[in-house]
Specification:
Length: 451
């Protein structure tokens, strides 16, 4: 009995709710994907489409997970009633675990890069840094070490509990993240020639908008808000009864979008100041940017050095608060379903997560034979989770709340038992029943290559 109460924590404050959940949302997706997508897809035109997708799909999906989680006050596998809906929670737990398998590898790289920046090892042209990155990733010890280290770091926070671990860590890390972000934006904008980068990011160019742009924006909204893998269900099960779900959801979405746009205001001004065309993904963050910082501040090397350190700390914080939420979802499941203490449950998640993390790290370099579906283990985990499992989980949640859960129960959560007016409830239900699932189903088919 003691263990059950121990496992069912609660966020102590509304700020804790917003910061912890925003911590989950703000992650690598905001920093290495959003800026690139925006720059390539018509700048402010893309941001506009992104915002529409946020309203049509992102926010409704997020609120649905809040509704399911807070109503159940249980781990994700118990939050959905009846078959086949129960599978949604199980799928979420599995997805969280699998995402951790590749996310922790990249998160580990950020630690290596913090140390490399401090030691001044990232000086050199792009070819040198590419070689540095390839050597590092192929080194079986270094990359594996940092992956394991990162998962252990997450483990320590998780074992401290919902309030003393997740909430407290988020309350420290999120404001720090914001501060570092603003500092870097100011530095980047002060660079001569940075205005070209700002134009590239923000000038609306509707000629670049195509059907694919809309799909990109939909997919990005969804991944960026951490929807589709029941981690919001798990977090919402720790929300108090008087947490205003809609208001919190909007605040989280605003924070998430702001961080993404601000990340673009670092990357593009800095890249354009030195005449580099930025790309997306690992190569942007780990190959192009170190060189950009070095070159951009060649006149005052200390600033370039500091900027690089701060950038990787920022990336590390963003990754850590996201991994915490991925870890918490299976941990809550193990603790509650098997009546184990949080400490043991966390360990039962951490150990296998380390195995998957290590294997996916090795698959990139020293053991290339670790392949699944014709891709490295790392890439296949990324592909299966982002393209298949998250989308499926999101679709099932929308259908569950829209069509299966009694409407009165949904209203009760959205209106906090009638204490809030919830004027937008019919609009919300309309989105959840029709618009969002259709968007979701289209993304799913698109990702499977149907059109
Ligand atoms: N939202 C995180 C990001 O933007 C990723 C994530 C997805 C985190 C799913 C938790 C769950 O990087």
């Amino acid at each position: 009995m003691k263990h059950q109460t121990e496992a069912r924590g609660k966020f102590a404050s509304k700020a804790g709710v917003v910061l912890a959940t925003a911590g989950s949302a703000v992650g690598l997706g905001n920093i290495w994907r959003f800026p690139y997508e925006t720059g390539m897809n018509g700048g402010a035109a893309f941001i506009l489409i992104y915002l529409l997708c946020l309203i049509a799909l992102g926010l409704p999906a997020m609120l649905c997970e809040f509704v399911v989680g807070r109503r159940a006050q249980r781990n994700a596998t118990r939050a959905y009633g009846g078959w086949p809906w129960k599978l949604t929670g199980c799928l979420g737990v599995l997805t969280g675990f699998l995402i951790m398998g590749f996310y922790s590898v990249v998160a580990g790289w950020t630690l290596q890069y913090i140390f490399a920046s401090v030691a001044g090892q990232l000086h050199g042209d792009v070819d040198y840094i590419r070689q540095y990155f390839n050597d590092f990733v192929a080194n079986p010890w270094k990359s594996v070490f940092w992956t394991v280290f990162f998962i252990l770091l997450t483990h320590v926070i998780i074992t401290r509990g919902v309030q003393r671990g997740i909430e407290r860590a988020s309350k420290v890390m999120m404001p720090l993240l914001f501060l570092l972000l603003l500092l870097l934006v100011v530095c980047a904008l002060l660079l001569p020639g940075s205005s070209e980068g700002v134009k590239f990011l923000l000038r609306p160019d509707f000629s670049k908008v195509s059907a694919d742009t809309v799909f990109d924006a939909l997919g990005q909204t969804f991944f960026s808000l951490s929807t589709g893998m029941a981690c919001l269900v798990t977090y919402a099960s720790y929300f108090d009864r008087d947490v205003h779900l809609v208001r919190s959801g909007v605040q989280i979405a605003v924070i998430d979008t702001m961080v993404a746009v601000l990340a673009g205001l670092i990357i593009f001004p800095a890249a354009f100041a030195v005449g580099v065309q930025p790309d997306a993904g690992p190569s942007l963050i780990f190959i192009t940017l170190p060189n950009v910082f070095g070159q951009a501040f060649a006149a005052v090397p200390v600033v370039g050095w500091l900027m690089s350190i701060i950038f990787y700390i920022l990336l590390m914080l963003a990754a850590l608060t996201s991994i915490i939420s991925m870890h918490e979802t299976p941990t809550a499941f193990v603790a509650e379903e098997f009546h184990l203490s949080r400490r043991i449950a966390a360990l039962l998640v951490t150990l296998p997560a380390m195995v998957v993390g290590v294997l996916s790290s090795l698959s990139l370099g020293s053991v290339p034979s670790l392949r699944l579906f014709g891709m490295t283990l790392f890439d296949s985990l990324d592909y299966i989770t982002a393209n298949v499992l998250l989308t499926l989980g999101g679709l099932l949640t929308l259908l569950y709340v829209g069509w299966v859960m009694p409407r009165g129960d949904v209203h009760e959560q959205i209106s906090n038992g009638g204490r809030l007016r919830a004027r937008y409830f019919p609009v919300f239900m309309f989105l959840v029943r029709y618009i969002s699932p259709i968007c979701m189903a289209l993304i799913f088919l698109h990702q499977l290559g149907a059109f």
